[in-house]
Structure to design on (290 residues):
């Protein structure tokens, strides 16, 4: 199991200086892996990132939230095509960096919709994701669809909803669960992990507290969630995600509504999260003796 941190814990921009800050900070905090948000895939330098990752001996994944201009659930074929082109570019970046996962809200726009998803829109997304999954698989990359709350997508908002969506998708595409979103939408932190894992679809995990600040200071039931991960023998990436107005990404911070300053010191936050996650996973292993 690789324990990682989201790049936005350290920086809001991913040109050379920002990349260095994020990669070195992630390594310094004790993580195995960094998740790099590809919000600006057209200007991202994945060759440079690959060199820095090698220098720091860090594994990598990448994530993305589509926009209204690249929304795969659009009924406009040109918009869907833009989304596919964007995601293909992201697959190139992941391959160049040596990563094997592209995750996040890659099946719809990330943001508040003012109406439900349409059947045609869902079909468009399922078809596009199926095609992309085949292209990803050819390069050793797996797509993982992040389940987010109702204010960030209308395609599905629960683990079971994601499984329903995947019923219409061909290929090896997994579900990406996030405790921050589960806290808003799911009935508890145990059953969704079991439901998704029983379908063989649990591929990626985000660890975030209810306010996206320091782990353990909000209302997320981490004890139950980590027990569930252990129960299903989850072995994929576990990535810490936290946002504060102390670190600003013009695109992502505004989309996610990061208006408050929940922490100031990225390094302290990250080191704490690394310990928190490793301690929790260590503790639940002892349950086998109970
Ligand atoms: Mn997340």
């Amino acid at each position: 199991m690789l324990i990682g941190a989201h790049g936005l814990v350290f920086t809001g921009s991913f040109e050379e200086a920002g990349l260095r800050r994020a990669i070195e900070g992630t390594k310094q905090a004790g993580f195995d892996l960094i998740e790099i948000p590809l919000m600006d895939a057209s200007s991202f330098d994945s060759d440079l990132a690959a060199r820095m990752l090698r220098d720091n001996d860090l594994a990598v994944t990448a994530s993305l939230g589509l926009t209204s201009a690249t929304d795969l659930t659009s009924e406009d074929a040109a918009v869907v095509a833009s989304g596919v082109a964007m995601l293909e570019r992201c697959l190139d970046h992941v391959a160049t960096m040596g990563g094997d996962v592209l995750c996040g809200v890659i099946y719809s726009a990330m943001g508040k919709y003012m109406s439900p998803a349409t059947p045609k829109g869902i079909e468009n997304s399922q078809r596009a994701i199926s095609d992309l999954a085949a292209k990803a698989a050819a390069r050793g990359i797996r797509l993982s669809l992040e389940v987010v709350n109702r204010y960030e997508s209308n395609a599905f908002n629960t683990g079971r909803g994601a499984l329903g969506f995947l019923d219409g998708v061909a290929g090896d595409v997994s579900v990406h669960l996030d405790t921050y979103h589960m806290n808003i939408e799911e009935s508890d932190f145990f059953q969704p992990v079991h439901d998704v894992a029983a379908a063989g679809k649990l591929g990626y995990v985000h660890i975030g507290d209810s306010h996206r600040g320091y782990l353990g200071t909000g209302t997320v039931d981490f004890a139950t969630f980590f027990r569930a991960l252990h129960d299903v023998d989850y072995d994929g990436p576990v990535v810490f995600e936290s946002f504060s107005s102390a670190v600003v990404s013009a695109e992502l911070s505004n989309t996610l509504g990061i208006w408050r300053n929940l922490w100031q010191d990225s390094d302290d936050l990250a080191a704490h999260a690394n310990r928190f996650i490793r301690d929790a996973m260590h503790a639940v292993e002892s349950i086998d003796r109970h």
